[in-house]
Amino acid sequence: MAVVTTPDDRAVLESASVQALLSQIGDAVRVTDGTFELLDEQAFRTRALDLLAHAAALGEDDDVKDTARWIIGEAGSALGVRPASIHELYMARGRGEISGFTVPAMNIRAATYYTGRALFSAAVELDVGALILEIARSEIGYTEQRPAEYVAVLTAAALREGWSGPLFFQGDHVQINAKKFAANPEPEVQALRDLIREQLHAGFYNIDVDTSTLVDLSWESIEEQQALNCRLSAEFTEFIRKHEPKGITVSIGGEIGEVGTENSTPEELRAYMNGYLAELRTLSEKAGREYAGLSKISVQSGTSHGGVVLPDGSIQEVAIDFETLRTLSEIARKEYGLAGAVQHGASTLPEHAFGRFPDAGTAEIHLATNFQNMVFDHPALPGDLRRRMYDWCRENLADERKPSDTEEQFIYKARKKALGAFKRELWELPAETWEQIGGSLRKQFAFLFEKLAVTNTRQVVQRYVTAPERPRSGPAALRIKAAADDWDLSD
User: Fold this and answer.
1) 116-130, pLDDT tens digit by residue?
2) 341 in Cβ contact with 363 (< 8 Å)
3) Backbone phi, then psi, for 359, in 5-degree steps?
4) pTM as predicted
């Protein structure tokens, strides 16, 4: 995995000019009046993408960012790397046509281009097609990665490593904040609608709607406990169906219990699904059209996000209830036609656990924290940078520290929130640093792909999934000829 842009290239981009960006990649692509032409694929993959990814994430001018993101998207479309929905693959699994693997859904928080390159390097070698790239509502904030940036940067990483095929971008935990909802429901619901529209526009065609935060255990019956979760899940499903691009059925996930709570039960799953389907039928009849429902369902089987941190900063080993996963996955498939159950909060599990998820029929597994941990704890990460990130946590997040937290527990839980503040410094570490960190990440991705049995899944993905072209007009900077000084390349 060779890395990155050179300091000279970066200096050009710091001029915050579309002209500078286009001139630097002029040997690889031609952009004229909002049209894109690939001139030299080799030059584009080996150098231009490094520049474009850097500009897409760190460009100081909005026109530079938008231009870089648009070029990456157009190149991806031309080279067969496009956002897609995994819905049809999951429906095939619900019908029993395919089985035997668990799709990894990976949240990339730190230095996304380089972590993504490690991911796709392993995926290409192992012929992996079934993988998901996701980011949660909370992560968008503290990592400073809006959906359009996330799609562009990871598309660039895929292209750089020679990947081809559909890319499954997913909105993880598109989640209602229970406190805000209780205080004033409509602004919180509208905030999720706005996020969903932004995600759809960017190319997120897989969305996990999480209204499980509103499950009310004070009610006597499980049906009453799940009622609000059912209704809002159905309403968000309708919203997504009304706004999804033509020709795409977005894969939607539901959730019956927040991660870190009591393990889910068959009764809860049936109460949620029956209530959800009833609500969705009512909405469909009212609209005069049939809305496609969920493709999977998230359950709780013993994990917590990030793991349980012990006083010395290590992670407590967790016992996953694989029988719960097996039972709920079977009910989801046989009774409701879904792909199966989804396991959250799994990246910090012991290595011996991962091979058991495919055996239990788990449809999807969410992996996040350990990739971030590998960056923070890698010996190649400069010690001074790590210290400054931890000092930033102490200075800016002191109010999040619990009285019972040791220093190690506080830092472990808080350090992810320093990723946005130090985003540029992480991206611009020396090439040799990312060679070392990337090598370790690549091994971990390969290990997970093999244990989750998604090696050699490219063909099965291609059998069920299509990623239609979505031509988009170029950004304003490429269309406004009045900005003549930005087009005068004679200097």
Assistant:
1) 999 999 999 999 999
2) yes
3) -60, -30
4) 0.92
